[in-house]
Amino acid sequence: MQRPFMHPSVDAITLEGILYALADPVRLQIVRRIRDGSCAMNCSEAAPEKMAKSTQSHHFQVLREAGLIRSERRGVEVINSLRCDEIGVKFPGLVPTILTAAEQRNGSHKPE
Amino acid sequence: MQRPFMHPSVDAITLEGILYALADPVRLQIVRRIRDGSCAMNCSEAAPEKMAKSTQSHHFQVLREAGLIRSERRGVEVINSLRCDEIGVKFPGLVPTILTAAEQRNGSHKPE
DNA sequence: TCAATAGTTCAATAGCATCGAACTACAATG
DNA sequence: CATTGTAGTTCGATGCTATTGAACTATTGA
User: Fold this and answer.
1) Could you read off the pLDDT of B72-109 as tens digits, one per residue?
2) pLDDT digits (tens, 9 = 90+) for A66-81
3) Which helix or strand (DSSP H or E) is residue B29 part of?
4) Does residue A108 lie in a domain region?
5) Does any domain span residue A109?
6) d(Cα A72, Cα A74) in Å, to the nearest integer?
7) What is the spatial distance between Cα B5 and Cα B63, in angstroms, rounded to a whole number?
8) Across residues A49-78, what is the average pLDDT?
9) Total number of domains in chain B
10) pLDDT tens digits, residue range A18-39?
11) Is position B105 within any domain?
């Protein structure tokens, strides 16, 4: 059916939703990758490789519905960008603090 | 069997564990209550009333294993206190930022 | 010792996550 | 315009986790 993407308004974004979305290691990694990328990123780029596409799609849906990312169709692909600024209005420092903490964990995620 | 409580060392505390634990509204509320209480708090005090005791027990176990709370038997009850300071060493500002954001959400306690 | 209180453990069920398969939508080429 | 390829979505099934009531342990007080 390919319905258009639903993005919550800033008002509709909840702390529970954000924490729930970022509590999953895969989704946290996706957000980190989008943040680290120089520009908006398509789904396959941002998600782990070995994962089923349907699972990817599900994770992006959760991130979208939590208000963490904005997804837009750009031709054949979907590009995703963070909504950090918008979230920052409602929850100051929340996402940056979490992402900074994520860096602490693995030392900035150096591949080897 | 009533085995002794297991608390992870600060090193063993992970961001995923913290986010996972706090992603649940019930557990977030428990942590907020303990934080807001003047002193350490027993389980029944900190948890929602209508909840089954087994579920309470489970939630406290998750919080404990995430490293968010410290539980100690004090007579017939178990008192719980936050490990904010210890967590702050590894993840500076993380828990305070989340709890502050939780206040934003409902205006601390205004229903409408 | 008996009853009450505070939590824990266990087994069963209910709800969510993951996956493969089939599908849609767009782009590029013949 | 049909064909092929690419990027995601949707769906149905299965497998893991959350919640619960019931039975249990441990401590306190009468």
Assistant:
1) 999 889 999 999 999 999 999 999 999 999 987 544 44
2) 999 999 999 899 999 9
3) helix B25-36
4) no
5) no
6) 6
7) 12
8) 94
9) 1
10) 999 999 999 999 999 999 987 7
11) no
- For B11-47, letters b (16+ CB in 10 Å) and e give eebbbebbbbbbbbeebbebbbebeeeeebbebeebb
Answer whether residue A46 is part of any domain.
Answer: yes
Out of B14, B93, B104, the one facing A91 most closely (by C-beta) is: B104
CA distance A46 to A78: 11
Within residues 15-44 of protein chain A, the ones with CB less than 7 A from nucleic strand C are: 24, 26
What are the residues with a C-beta under 7 Å from any atom of nucleic chain D? A 1-3, 5, 42-45, 53-54, 56-58, 60-61, 71, 76-79; B 1-2, 24, 26, 51-55, 58-59, 62, 73, 75-76
